[in-house]
Amino acid sequence: MRIYEAKDYEGMSRKAANIIAAQIVMKPDCVLGLATGSSPIGTYKRLIEGYENGDLDFSEVKSVNLDEYKGLSKENDQSYYYFMNEKLFRHVNIKPENTNLPDGLATDDDAECTRYDAVVAATGGIDLQLLGLGHNGHIGFNEPAQEYAKGTNCVALTQSTIDANSRLFEKAEDVPRFAYTMGVGTIMKARKILIIVSGADKAKIVRKAFFGPVTPEVPASILQFHNDVTIVGDEAALAEIQ
Ligand code: F6R
């Protein structure tokens, strides 16, 4: 496990983008596993700059995202499809057909989970998986549980996640109750993992996840068993592991 400390969110974003950029330069047809949320927005901005100044070419890059809300269409501005398009895809030359997310409008959960596992497998496997870290240690939407989910699964969002999300929706009943997420097993198969953490509110879970016992009660703790993990965090998020 390598840990890189940056001063702040900007510094974290620069370092993370440099690692992803190196991956793209070394293997132009690489498969990137991507995340949404606040943590990667700055990283994506830097990658867009890399594309705009001619350093990065996404024309052969493939991507698979971690998760998507069930019930949200691609046009819904709260969907992760919409997020990825706004924050990265439409600003670079990645081919839309090379980008993949679970289908929020799927009606048959089992079929959608099987389909998405096949999509990930058909890429040849994830070269670099970018992750954020939830306050309870979740990765993707894999929440604390008794066991690790292997493949894509449809999860019931916890009440705290639903409550946190409700600020983004006009009506409470619009807030998604379920989401599709890549399983921990699939995440662990990625050749490299890059996890980015920022802010004092992540300090406790960073210590618990990377220096505490490995347990599905703290899903990210399993990353301690992966042989190529890089953590890039700002001072505040890494404060409790110094
Ligand atoms: C996003 C995802 C989540 C987030 C995590 C951290 O696709 O899968 O696991 O990475 O909730 O979110 P932020 O970055 O908003 O703190």
TrEMBL record:
GO terms for molecular function: glucosamine-6-phosphate deaminase activity; identical protein binding. It catalyses: alpha-D-glucosamine 6-phosphate + H2O = beta-D-fructose 6-phosphate + NH4(+). Belongs to the glucosamine/galactosamine-6-phosphate isomerase family. NagB subfamily. Pfam families: Glucosamine_iso. One of its GO terms (cellular component) is cytoplasm. Its EC number is 3.5.99.6. It comes from Anaerobium acetethylicum. This is Glucosamine-6-phosphate deaminase. The keyword Hydrolase applies. It is an enzyme of class 3 (hydrolase). The gene is nagB. Residues 13-227 form the Glucosamine/galactosamine-6-phosphate isomerase domain. Keywords: Carbohydrate metabolism, Hydrolase.
